[in-house]
Specification:
It contains 13 helices and 12 strands. It is of the alpha/beta class. The chain folds into 2 domains: 128 residues, Alpha-Beta Complex (Aspartate Aminotransferase, domain 1), CATH 3.90.1150.10; 238 residues, Type I PLP-dependent aspartate aminotransferase-like (Major domain) (Aspartate Aminotransferase, domain 2, 3-Layer(aba) Sandwich), CATH 3.40.640. It has a 7-stranded mixed beta sheet with strand order 2-8-7-6-5-3-4, with helices on both faces. It has a 3-stranded antiparallel beta sheet with strand order 9-10-12. Helix 4 links the parallel strand 3 and strand 4. Helix 1 runs antiparallel to helix 8 and helix 8 packs across helix 12. It is globular and about 75 Å long.
């Protein structure tokens, strides 16, 4: 059977036009952008041009009286680590973080705890939206940094980020947002959000793997986490990957050109998929009442085990996940659904389905058919296993 890929939140296929642009960049600008000779200067000019274009697409003001900065990283994980560990560099620096955050952010938060920094967990409601009243209460004591996702990686839920940023600013705290799942899916304007720092990664919107960024507002100075070079004012030393930066730019430009149509199409396809999957007895679509990304669905199939279902769907030619790709090797239940207060039967039976810009209506219809068939087959096997006589006689009503 043709494979159907519904794991675009983990990574997206590289757009051929992006690959072509990157190859052309390598051909035209083979030199190191930090070299002082003519070839190096040409590479530097190309890097600056691509940087300015990315900044404009994300609403990051690089000019003016209060210029912001872009720091290119190896991806969203490095950008999140630089933000959390770099901005909470003193032992007294207090961090506030929501329990629904990605592991690439919760990991450095745990490292801060190990170092002795105070870290508080921000409550969320049943849909995974942050509790702004709780945030206001936490901000009554000095806070260095608040970190809140723009959009959740498992449920797609969008957070009230502008309101949170205003609250943080009113109390003298910085606000970082992990926008890795949002950039290239919905419009994201750094300046309009009023945040201090923002993370993004190109491979989430059909750009190349190995390139991410951290946008920093004017005057925000994280402590470097790597040393040995002057690039990015010493914040992230090392040779700038010009072709990857160009690839990120082209991927963002391609998304921007088609964003309205893409959002409408993916929202319609997501709703179709969810409507079909809800026909399974007891199926629950998480956070369906909240504002969400257009391509993400977290669905529980009570009575089934998520790992068994994931493997069975893989055999059926449907690629999905049990959560974020960074944590998918773990058998631990979803921390996102746990933080949302979901009941255990829903947590242990939850899968994530994420669509992409090239996903078709025919693929969604066929995926729904395969998913429902697989769920029903697993349920029937489980029921037979509970009744040994039924499995020997061919049915529970034959005695």
């Amino acid at each position: 059977m043709p494979a159907i890929y519904l794991d675009h939140n983990a990574t997206t296929p590289l757009d051929p036009r992006v690959a072509e642009a990157m190859w052309e960049c390598e051909r035209q600008f083979p030199a190191n952008p930090s070299s002082q000779h003519a070839a190096g200067r040409r590479a530097r000019a190309a890097l600056e041009d691509a940087t300015e274009a990315i900044a404009a697409l994300l609403g990051v003001p690089l000019g003016g009286a209060r210029p912001a900065r872009l720091v290119f990283t190896s991806g969203g994980t490095e950008a999140n680590n630089l933000a959390i560990l770099g901005l909470c560099a003193s032992p007294s620096d207090r961090l506030v973080v929501a329990g629904v955050e990605h592991s690439s952010l919760l990991g450095p938060a745990r490292e801060l705890v190990r170092r002795g920094n105070p870290v508080d967990t921000l409550r969320v409601d049943r849909d995974g939206r942050i509790d702004l009243e709780h945030l206001a209460a936490l901000l009554e004591r000095p806070v260095r940094l608040v970190s809140i996702q723009t959009a959740n990686h498992e449920t797609g839920v969008l957070q009230p980020l502008a309101e949170a940023a205003a609250l943080a600013a009113a109390h003298g705290a910085l606000l970082h947002t992990d926008a890795v799942q949002a950039v290239g899916k919905i419009p994201v304007d750094f300046a309009a959000l009023g945040v201090s720092a923002l993370s993004a990664a190109a491979h989430k919107f059909r750009g190349p793997r190995g390139i991410g960024l951290l946008a920093l507002a004017h005057g925000i100075e994280p402590r470097p986490q790597a040393f040995g070079g002057f690039q990015h004012h010493g914040l992230r030393p090392g040779t700038e990957p010009l072709a990857l930066v160009v690839g990120m730019r082209v991927a963002l430009e391609l998304w921007r050109a088609a964003q309205v149509a893409l959002q409408a199409t993916m929202t319609e396809l997501r709703d179709r998929l969810e409507a079909e999957l809800k026909t399974y007895p007891g199926a629950v679509v998480h956070a369906c009442r909240a504002p969400r990304l257009p391509q993400t669905s977290a669905v529980s199939f009570p009575g089934l085990d998520r790992q068994s279902l994931l493997m069975a769907l893989d055999l059926a030619g449907v690629a999905c996940s049990t959560g974020s790709a960074c944590a998918s090797g773990s058998s631990e239940p979803s921390p996102v659904l746990q933080a949302m207060g979901c009941d255990p039967p829903l947590i242990v039976s939850a899968l994530r389905f994420s669509l992409g810009s090239a996903t078709t209506a025919a693929e969604v219809a066929e995926a729904a058919r395969r998913i429902l068939k697989t769920c029903n087959d697993l349920r029937e096997r489980q029921n037979r296993g509970k009744n040994p006589l039924a499995s020997r006689t061919g049915g529970g009503n034959s005695l």
